[in-house]
Design a protein that fits this description.
This protein is mainly α. The chain has helices spanning 18-30, 33-36, 40-49, 60-67, 85-92, 94-105, 108-114, 122-142, 150-158, 179-196, 199-204, 250-254, 260-280, 282-295, 301-312, 316-333, 343-359, 366-370, and strands at residues 164-167, 174-177, 217-220, 225-228.
Length: 376
């Protein structure tokens, strides 16, 4: 999915400034879960009592579904799906519990990837995004609506207004998934992949073209080699209309398309700069990081590392701009792209860089670096 490099939009272009994003993320960074929602600490306690300890943020019903996203997984359930649905419902509420149930009984990989994402070419997706923006503007400003537009026909062919009927992953029974729920599952899958996809999945599924097509690979543990391996409906009784549709802030509010090749090139340039920069010099690393950002300007860590190089060289204004962009992207994603360090760690370090850039100071000794810490 290709994208031409362009300068990152300003706050005036509809992006939230880092301080606003930081205010939203601060409860998560500080572990102040009650500030997120009064019921969140008790919900987390329920999960911890049965051996779970992870969550992510969304609107309330989707947030609760994500928080308990493994609770009734057909393969990894920590609550028995056949006996504990009432207990889960009592904690989550009916809408969230039913959404969570659907999340795990539909064949989500094929629904989201094979039946939706892979049905678009990169060029087609870019063209349809642009056309949909024009169409939306015409509808809002002039009351114009054209149901024969190519982008609408494509969406309607893939996700009809009546929803999609898929097969239950265990029983094979028909399961009806509404268009609104499909949209929410796309968003949740984005969050899921962002948080949980690591490099080892690339090896497991031969993901060397960057498209995450989940090629089936059978591993022979003994010799270390691998070989290729070749109803009832469950509606939500209308409650899916209660689910708010939101657009994630990433990829410039989901208006840009990042190509698989660009993603890989950006990752490799970043990794080379990080691993070889101390040997080949900061100027060399700066050049690679700049090229990485040109390929993929939508993640925070390259900006963070580049900001540190600017600080080391006393280029404080450039450091401040890089750190602000890095912090914005980190807070937008809510999970790390470079998973050597936690999201909280990246955000804290980036805030240190931003603070020092504004102070126009940077330590020039090893102990000075070691003693850096954000206490404000």
């Amino acid at each position: 999915m290709s994208s031409s490099p362009s300068p990152s939009p300003s706050v005036a272009d509809g992006l939230q400034d880092p301080q606003t994003l930081l205010a939203s993320a601060r409860p998560f960074l500080m572990g102040d879960f009650e500030a997120v929602h009064p019921n969140l600490p008790s919900l987390i306690s329920v999960l911890r009592s049965v051996g779970a300890g992870e969550y992510w943020k969304a609107q309330e019903s989707v947030c609760r579904c994500g928080l308990f996203h493994s609770a009734q997984d057909v393969n990894l359930a920590i609550f028995n799906p056949s006996t504990a649905s009432d207990a889960v419902r009592s904690h989550l509420g009916g809408t969230a519990e039913e959404l969570m149930y659907l999340f795990f009984v539909v064949p989500r990989q094929s629904l989201i990837l094979s039946d939706l994402i892979y049905r678009y070419t990169d060029v087609e997706l870019i063209e349809h995004l642009k056309a949909s923006e024009v169409s939306l503007r015409n509808a809002k400003e002039g009351g114009l609506f054209d149901g024969d537009e190519a982008w609408r026909k494509k969406v309607n062919s893939l996700v009809p207004s009546s929803g999609i009927t898929v097969k239950h992953v265990k029983t094979g029974e028909d399961v009806l998934v509404s268009r609104r729920v499909v949209a929410i599952f796309v968003m949740m899958t984005m969050a899921d992949f962002s948080d949980q996809i690591f490099g080892f999945q690339d090896i497991l599924f031969d993901n060397f073209n960057g498209r995450l097509e989940y090629s089936v690979v059978e591993f022979n543990i003994k010799n270390g080699k691998r070989v290729g391996a070749g109803g009832n409906q469950v509606p939500m009784d209308g409650r899916d209309e209660e689910l708010e549709l939101v657009i994630p802030p990433v990829f410039d509010n989901c208006t840009r398309v990042l190509g698989a090749e660009e993603q890989i090139e950006a990752r490799d340039l970043y990794w080379e700069a990080v691993c070889e920069g101390s040997k080949k010099g900061l100027d060399w690393a700066e050049e690679l990081l700049g090229r990485s950002i040109e390929k993929n300007p939508f993640v925070g860590e390259p900006y963070v590392v580049l900001g540190q190089i600017y600080l080391t060289n006393g280029r404080f204004e450039e450091a401040e701009r890089a750190a602000e962009k890095g912090l914005r992207h980190l807070l937008e994603w809510g999970s790390p792209w470079d998973k050597r360090m936690s999201w909280e760690g990246w955000a804290a370090w980036c805030r240190v860089l931003l603070m020092k850039a504004k102070e126009k100071s940077w330590p020039n000794t090893s102990w000075g670096i070691l003693n850096l810490g954000l206490v404000k």
